[in-house]
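forwarding from the other thread:

> can someone predict this with 5-phosphoarabinonic acid?

sure thing
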Amino acid sequence: MSPITLDYAKCLTDRVGKHGIAVRDLDAAVPELASLTESLNRTRGTGWQRWRDLPFDPARREHVGKVRALVEKLGPDVENLVVLGIGGSALGNIALQAALKPATYNLLPRDLRDGPRLFVLDNVDPHAIGQTLTFIGNDDPEFRRTVVNVISKSGETAETAAQFILLRSMLKRMLGDGFADHVVAITDPARGTMRAICDAEGYATLPVPEGVGGRFSVLSPVGLFSAAMCGIDIDALLDGAAEMDKRCSSNDVLKNPAAILAWLLMQFTKRGKPNHVLMPYCNALYMLADWYRQLWAESLGKRVDLSGKEVFAGATPIKALGTTDQHSQVQLYREGPNDKVIGFLEVESFEEDITIPHGLDAENLNYLQGQTLSTLLNAEKRATEYALVESERPNFTIRFPRLDAHAVGQFIQLWEITTACAGLILNIDAYDQPAVETGKKATFGLMGRPGYEQWKMKVDAALDSSVQTV
Ligand code: PA5
């Protein structure tokens, strides 16, 4: 299997002038990066870093075994798999499906799909949820072949809880007593509200493993179950992650893509470029850019460092899509404030390609005829890269030889280790999310959860805008 690679030449001063980083600065950082890598290697598999061992036995054997056994037990007849979750409990599922299954997957007839149709309800928008439930529920015989997969580590996230109460009630109403056989819950194996519900109602369960936070959980049963249900090769995914893990454990840091990427992006952040764009030239990778957005934002955006000092750390992740956003964002990226680093995702060889046919007699368009769409797509990427270099805008490319589960596994492990390394550079806790918790508690208060009354009062007082509303 060919490795995905990081091409960072266009981050350096010889390509983008004073907006780049000098090779001598990178060379000087080698001892620091070796020591950070050493520290990550020493603490891997402990505390909140247990995500690091997900691609390896014994965690891997346990999770893959449980996931495959459950997929087999549910059998090939499941027609709708409805995933309930939000944030780290949904983004990975969406990203894997988008990257590794056709965009038209849910529209295909059953014999052309490797599994059930997949619906991920990652919000509480009444329109979006109402339309999905109407679609699934309208066809009663098909509804019998629906499985609801609720994913929540805590079991208390209001959005997921609301989705779950809705779906549980629909299952119960339409299927009667056996409804519990249609629920698979992925939650904390020992604690929490969801765990208690599972125990009381007898759902099939899979673990959100101890020491694995939501945004680092895609290679645990959280992401593996829906992927395996839809026929994604989860072993190839984990093999890819394991291979990338080895590369990113190397103390020879100039061969370690996570160490280089973390250091470059944190250097750029310090040097006035805190906006980090990820721009796939491949529609299927767009939702992986969305997954990256959460990982980078929630892990690194922190008010205090590990000593408690206020630092307001972090960088703003942005997603864009090539070529589409060349006609929307690149004007800004090229001529606006030079405060960004643009990361391209490039696929060298597309599994399916289309040749633009001959037959149109138009002199100015003849050059296109006979060429493939992937040649055009990658030429556009190279042209954008060139335009950015011309105006001294640093950029890098993560290159996929081809788009498959092995490459996606590499990509996921690369960004998770890069994030952990950036957290060490910033000296912050990359694994907590105090600001998200504040929002969750304020929501409890506003929705009338007992014990959270003071949160409602605080919110109402802080947000009063009666005088300023015109
Ligand atoms: O990354 C995270 O920790 C968060 O995005 C959580 O996954 C998200 O808030 C959902 O939490 P839970 O799984 O407890 O419902």
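DSSP finds 18 helices and twelve strands in the chain. thats all i got for now
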